[in-house]
Amino acid sequence: MTALLLSLGFALLGMWLHPEMHLRSLEKPFRMLSCVTVLVTVLAVRPSRKALWYGLIAGTVAGAVFICYQRWGLKIERPGGLINSITFGDIELCMGMMCLAGVLDFKGRQVLWPALGAVAGLVGSVATGTRGGWIAVLFAALLFLKYGHFLRTRMAQGVAMLVFGLLVGTYFIDQTGARDRFNQGVSEVKTYFDGGSAFTNVGVRLELWKGALMLIERHPWRIAGTREVEAEMKELVQAGRLQPFVLKAEHFHNDMLQQLVFGGIPGLLVWLATMIAPFMFFLRILHTHESASPSVIAPALAGLLLVIGYFSFGLTEVIYWSVMSCMFYAQMLFLLMGLCLNARDEAQVAA
Fold this sequence. Notes:
By secondary structure, this protein is mainly alpha-helical. It is built from 14 helices and no strands. Helix 5 (85-102) packs parallel to helix 7 (133-146) and helix 7 runs antiparallel to helix 13. The longest helix has 34 residues, at 255-288. It is globular and about 65 Å long.
């Protein structure tokens, strides 16, 4: 709550310093802070955790079916459901990873339900052709290696191994296009640094990151307005230091660089707080409840996967750019926090 309040306060400061900024710049931080009502509701109503898990399972499966229909039925190369393909793929994968955490809260053969959700999230993300999610899966794998002891049953351990095995397998299945996308990314990076055409998916990002670093060097500690940044980018293009296509981009395709360009180091610290604060909350739940029941561990692990996923997505995309993705992050964050607190209270009462 404090981190999101700081984010809203920083946005207000930006508007005060740059009156030309639109009022909608307050929309995302205000909406995210308002999501504290989700936490209040969960603490008051005390809903069942299974409602969340089954909701995530149904959502990932429905999303995967629809996106696969678009990809292989309608022959759309980069489908995105009804939104941007990158945003859809990232949220779908994030939901799938949280389903994997939900395995802890199911017993016996019932673990196949969250396993289905995890596989569906993976398939849906691969179908969009989004590559940024691969970094999130790598971090998720490291997290499960660290806290794999919470997967106490062989069934749960087998499900986790199956999901990560399927991810690796997608690289070797031509129909998924994963290998082509990976090889294309490597080729575009090599072409860019060899001085070839930069007008590719990866090349555009690299050129934007180059421009962002130049702007950050000019004003690392202060808030910059939209008009100022646009003028500076045009100046760099006219000087031949950047290629003209960067002027058509809506953002810098990296959350940290985006924050540094417009908010300087203070802006970056405020943004990092919205990641680090909840991460530390869920991490503390895990460390202080080593022998706790799955009712405490499962939502805490899902919360860690949510934060790690969004941080990873932000390395190659501005995941905070979309209001939808911002709301998903904030609402799910407070929902999982509420479930953790409820489960902890129930465990203390039972003890």
